[in-house]
């Protein structure tokens, strides 16, 4: 699959394609259904599947830090779209030049001259162009002029509920990783490369692998029982803090992972971290000793959770990204071990459906919940 950055990198003579436009944040099962729809049409026409996305996402451009947290970075989004059948992703820089285009200019420059679109699949509530003056009916009219078809996306429901990026964010923030996984079609994860950081954990007997996060609103923030996948495929239990480390201070958000009973040099490794259960929010402590005492409590709680909900698959060989289309479910915090065994068989991960304890009064449980009036997928 090709990722094309900007219109100027498109071939001068477009080969034609079947396309869709959107943020595709999370590439959840609703997005996967759109890709299925595109592949069906592309097979009939003998054309490649193209997904048009924006960087930054439009709401990030307009709202900044008040925008909804991202579920996937561009790199991960492109990988997931490829796994769902996209042949190419056109990433358009969302800037003043792009947003100043009228809807008709966008159609003519991007869809017609740029991509040579033969068929377009978008939601009937899709709006675009300057002042958001473009809609589905305009696309259909202009499509008749230029010879491309326009088709509604199919609504994807799970348990009679529409799957959306907004809903996934809400589930993650509430600690319901099992239902979030069902909507995503795979367990939610964070990924990145381990860097040399303050190395404070070593001084208090809790070494951590630190992965920098983008300075954007976080979909998760707090302390979690996690399973971490190493580059050699091993999956190991542990505990992680996601956020700004208010006790020691930080200039950017960080994912700090402590692996249980492991003493290895992980610098430079790219980790995949799967949050399984929410333990608490971030807390500002009165010094390192209080922080150390709380970390001991967090470790004990996470160990107890993993012991109670069955063993973890030690490798990802049978549960890799092929799990993306499974109907994923997991145990509630009070579920029986047999339920944990069931989820371990399907994904290798015991995903909780609720936080393990009430938030401490001093916990910072703010994770930037997305507005519910409009989905940005």
**Backbone structural class:** alpha/beta
Which fold name is given in CATH as the topology of the largest domain? Answer: Rossmann fold
N-to-C span: 21 Å
Note the run of SSEs as H and E.
EEHEHHEHHEHEEEHHEHEEEEEHH
Number of domains: 2
Measured by DSSP, the beta-strand proportion falls in 15-25%
Number of strands: 14
Region (Disordered): 317-377
InterPro entries: FAD_synthase, Riboflavin_kinase, Riboflavin_kinase_bac, Riboflavin_kinase_bac/euk, Riboflavin_kinase_dom_sf, Rossmann-like_a/b/a_fold
Catalytic activity: FMN + ATP + H(+) = FAD + diphosphate; riboflavin + ATP = FMN + ADP + H(+)
Keywords: ATP-binding, FAD, Flavoprotein, FMN, Kinase, Multifunctional enzyme, Nucleotide-binding, Nucleotidyltransferase, Transferase
Features:
377 residues, alpha/beta, Rossmann fold, Elongation Factor Tu (Ef-tu), domain 3, 2 domains, 6-stranded parallel sheet, 6-stranded antiparallel sheet, 11 helices, 14 strands, 30% helix, Bifunctional riboflavin kinase/FMN adenylyltransferase, ATP binding, transferase, kinase
If you had to describe this structure to a student in words, what would you say it looks like?
The chain is α/β, with parallel strands linked by helices and 377 residues long. It folds into two domains: 157 residues, HUPs (Rossmann fold, 3-Layer(aba) Sandwich); 121 residues, Elongation Factor Tu (Ef-tu), domain 3 (Beta Barrel), CATH 2.40.30.30. The protein contains eleven helices and 14 strands. It has a six-stranded parallel sheet, with helices on both faces. It has a six-stranded antiparallel sheet with strand order 9-14-11-12-13-10, with helices on one face. A two-stranded antiparallel sheet has the order 7-8. Helix 5 crosses helix 6 and helix 7 runs antiparallel to helix 8. The longest helix is centred in the C-terminal third of the chain and has 21 residues. About 10% of the residues have low confidence.
